[in-house]
Amino acid sequence: EKINFNSRNTLKDMYDEYKAEIGKSHDDILEISDFDSNMELFTELILKTGSFYNAQIYFEKVDFEKKYPLKNEETEFLAYIEKKIKLVEPFTYLIIKNLLETKFESQNFKNGNINYINSEILLRNYKNYYNIKSEFKKIYLINRIFSELVEDSILENTLYGHKISEKYEKLFIEKRDEFDKRLKQLLILGLNEFAKNDMEEFNENILLTHKEYMRIDLQILLDSKVPKGTWRAGYANTDKDICLFITNDKSHITQENLKYDNSLHADDIIQWISQPKTFHESSVGQMFIKHKEKGIKVHIFIRKYAFMDGNKTNPFIYLGNADYYKSYGDKPMAILWKLKHKIPQELIYDLYE
Fold this sequence. Notes:
Layout: H1 8-21, H2 39-49, H3 52-59, H4 64-67, H5 72-82, H6 91-103, H7 106-111, H8 119-129, H9 139-151, E1 155-158, E2 161-164, H10 177-194, H11 199-205, E3 212-213, H12 215-221, E4 235-237, E5 241-247, E6 264-266, E7 269-273, H13 283-289, E8 297-303, E9 316-328, E10 334-339, H14 345-352
Helix pairs in contact: 1-2, 5-10, 6-10
Domain DUF3427: 209-349
InterPro entries: DUF3427
Protein name: DUF3427 domain-containing protein
């Protein structure tokens, strides 16, 4: 059941209640590792306060900043990693985990050496951590994650492989007890939470049925070549994938002709309405109809509301792969898609009631 977090006071109550629930007193400190059974509260704390460190400052009784000081670059780095805690891929966390672990190898630590990681090391770590026996064929994603971390100034690319950027270099050379402990707990929390997914499905499809995704996540996971943030319409595609997006509530749409009927015809058949200019004989229409012949996967994403409290954009729930079933009408086309997986009744109720 979703928890309603409407105010900081409510969040404070939930923070204190959870502390009591896991057997801690008011004077005890909630740590990152305590949230292995309540990821929802942890992510909400990050969302509403900016970081878990901020939440502790707000909600713990002690003078938290004074007792557990962190430097600006430490809080900044931790906040970056925390915002990815609802892992859509494990590679970002595995990269940082590798760099943190090699920091503690005595020779490297004493000499202040810089540690490097490449795709081969990362792939080996991934297969070992999740006990993956089958071949991982989506190597493009590993390379894309390295590129994203370089773009975000977390890593630098060198002749020897990727290393932590100069901006954060000292964090991975110097001993910093509080930062090291928090980062380690954060990485374990995220990676272990990701292990609850169907790892075989991730290995084969990258996208996980009924998991939540933002459009920008999908651009990275499916290796879109267009600028990030440009996937805004009801569909987007790469060379090998088509993503169809459905928002059930239309109250945010002002034009009546754009309030499309995306109704559910069965628990595995869903209707999706194309853009207004699309017709059966058009190149886009034919792409939808003949996607299997063209070797293109179709992915269906749905959400009830476009926005959450505070006008933040809601993520989409991935309903899985789908095949063209039938269609009617032109400009726009109404297309029925048959899902690979039936939608659970509880999810149907949440989305359509």
